């Protein structure tokens, strides 16, 4: 039974997948004090939060059974990602669930600011009828500058174009070709600041974006420009914004988020040019349900041994690549485990080569599986997809990934090579239509082995009777051979045999096998 701790208020409909799962126990305890949180997380397999709970290094270290932390929302500012990675905990969020909600909210704030709607409403509530004081501006033919052209930025753009606005966008990953396809003008940050009548920011809050819109940025804007922040507090430097509003350089600001929240004593709220609300971008019934559903599904998938769709601290497999890569996940794990079980010496390098159709995709998720399965043999089960690369780096193990044109006659070929201080060994595998995963080469010898179950790998001298002696010895210990693959380079030279057997080989049998005539090396492994 998987124990899922929910420490912030979430939509009941959104967590219904968890509540209805037969293999999941859901503990809902919002607004816990620190000591209670530490006590509860120590018993949890998964933790789901929104923005209230601070998932610190201490919390993660207390979560000795934690496999996943889910953030029901986009930002993960309240989660220590480095500590999560160190502890092998997957962090997921829900970047799509509140996209529409935040984009619609941005447009609502934009129009409210352009037409002075909150100010006029407040005046009317005070018994005033002052039409001239609240004259606004139209959106048509105005230029909207979008800083951050991700999911929300793109949806805001489509809605703005519906209002006949011109759009210029800046994003470090936005190319001119992509901008043209989206129907927007591509610009640098300075070009966006200089040309826009309205500027909206939609970036994450990271070191590079903290105070991205600062005093220098305001100086580059048009006289009378207006700015919005429905993303994260801290992207706009509030002191600089206050000065720009006071001087008249900036005609208005619409703020959903602040550097410190709750922003009850923020002096920006005293200015009549500022339209503000208390962080409502994702506050719709639909968004709250959507983000909870998305995170709940990812949590269940990970707890059941699957892969998260929206991981934050490990690369996800793009949807368009999942059909090509997913069938190779098991193969990559098996190849790593097979070779890791038989290699000798201190590990220096893990090299993974891809050929055939696999060169058309980013195979990093498969490399990560190889590294995990190799390191688990040396370090134990604390190694997983999340921390495998970091553990390898900490231990001075270099990971190399390369695409090659050599397919050895196969449609796809995945080759793993391990370099130690004693030797270099390699294994190659593929997927055969209708037959599944196969090992097709081991140390240069051609074989055809299903990488599962109980296996014996033997390096021996190609001499008459060598195979028979192995078979006889196994029979003496009541071990049945299911399949046998034999490969050699030259008659009478070095050779290998790989046996699939029906049950585990005991210590006594292994000892006898190691001393059979003409056997140079023997390893038993279970996949």
From TrEMBL:
Keywords of this entry: Amino-acid biosynthesis, NAD, Oxidoreductase, Serine biosynthesis
Entry function: Catalyzes the reversible oxidation of 3-phospho-D-glycerate to 3-phosphonooxypyruvate, the first step of the phosphorylated L-serine biosynthesis pathway. Also catalyzes the reversible oxidation of 2-hydroxyglutarate to 2-oxoglutarate.
Reaction(s) catalysed (UniProt annotation): (2R)-3-phosphoglycerate + NAD(+) = 3-phosphooxypyruvate + NADH + H(+); (R)-2-hydroxyglutarate + NAD(+) = 2-oxoglutarate + NADH + H(+)
EC annotation from Swiss-Prot or TrEMBL: 1.1.1.95
Alphabetized NCBIfam families for the sequence: PGDH
Keyword DNA repair: no
Family: Belongs to the D-isomer specific 2-hydroxyacid dehydrogenase family.
Residues covered by the ACT domain: 455-527
Protein name from the UniProt record: D-3-phosphoglycerate dehydrogenase
Pfam families, alphabetized: 2-Hacid_dh, 2-Hacid_dh_C, ACT, PGDH_inter
Root EC class: oxidoreductase
PANTHER family: FORMATE DEHYDROGENASE 1 (PTHR42938), HYDROXYPYRUVATE REDUCTASE (PTHR42938:SF47)
């Amino acid at each position: 039974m998987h124990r899922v701790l929910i420490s912030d208020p979430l939509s009941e409909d959104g967590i219904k997948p968890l509540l209805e799962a037969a293999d999941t126990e859901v503990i809902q305890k919002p607004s816990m004090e620190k000591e209670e949180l530490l006590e509860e997380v120590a018993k949890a397999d998964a933790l789901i939060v929104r923005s209230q709970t601070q998932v610190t290094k201490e919390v993660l270290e207390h979560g000795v059974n934690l496999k996943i932390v889910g953030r029901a929302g986009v930002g993960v500012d309240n989660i220590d990602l480095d500590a999560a990675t160190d502890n092998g905990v997957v962090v997921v969020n829900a970047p799509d669930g509140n996209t529409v909600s935040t984009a619609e909210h941005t447009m609502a704030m934009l129009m409210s600011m352009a037409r002075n709607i909150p100010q006029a409403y407040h005046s009317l509530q005070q018994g005033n009828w002052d039409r001239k004081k609240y004259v606004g501006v139209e959106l048509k033919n105005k230029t909207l500058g979008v800083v951050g052209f991700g999911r929300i930025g793109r949806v805001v753009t489509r809605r703005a174009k519906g209002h006949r606005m011109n759009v210029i966008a800046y994003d470090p990953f936005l190319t001119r070709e992509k901008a043209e396809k989206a129907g927007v003008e591509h610009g640098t940050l300075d070009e966006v600041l200089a040309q826009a009548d309205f500027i909206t920011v939609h970036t994450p809050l990271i070191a590079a974006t903290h105070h991205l819109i600062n005093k220098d940025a305001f100086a580059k804007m048009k006289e009378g420009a207006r700015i919005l922040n429905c993303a994260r507090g801290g992207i706009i430097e509030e002191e600089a914004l206050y000065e720009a509003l006071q001087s008249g350089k900036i005609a208005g600001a619409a703020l959903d988020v602040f550097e410190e929240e709750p922003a009850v004593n923020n002096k920006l709220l005293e200015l009549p040019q500022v339209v503000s609300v208390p962080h409502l971008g994702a506050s719709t019934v639909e968004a709250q349900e959507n983000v909870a559903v998305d995170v709940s599904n990812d949590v269940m998938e990970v707890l059941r041994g699957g892969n998260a769709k929206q991981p934050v601290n490990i690369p996800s497999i793009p949807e368009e690549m999942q059909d090509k890569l997913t069938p190779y996940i098991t193969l990559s794990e098996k190849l790593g485990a097979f070779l890791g079980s038989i290699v000798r010496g201190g590990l220096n390098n893990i090299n993974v080569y891809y050929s055939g159709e696999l060169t058309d995709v980013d195979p990093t998720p498969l490399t990560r599986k190889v590294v995990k399965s190799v390191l688990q043999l040396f370090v134990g089960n604390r190694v997983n997809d999340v921390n495998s690369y970091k553990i390898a780096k900490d231990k001075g193990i270099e990971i190399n990934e390369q695409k090659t044109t050599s397919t050895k006659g196969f449609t796809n070929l995945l080759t793993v090579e391990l370099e130690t201080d004693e030797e270099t060994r390699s294994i190659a595998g593929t997927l055969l239509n209708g037959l599944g995963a196969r090992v097709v080469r081991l140390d240069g010898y051609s074989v055809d082995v299903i990488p599962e179950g109980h296996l014996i790998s033997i390096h021996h001298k190609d001499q008459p009777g060598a195979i028979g002696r192995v078979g006889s010895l196994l029979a003496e210990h009541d071990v049945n051979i299911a399949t046998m693959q034999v490969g050699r380079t030259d008659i009478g030279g070095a050779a290998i045999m790989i046996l699939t057997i029906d049950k585990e080989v005991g210590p006594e049998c292994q000892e006898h096998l190691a001393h059979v005539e003409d056997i140079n090396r023997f390893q038993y492994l279970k996949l």
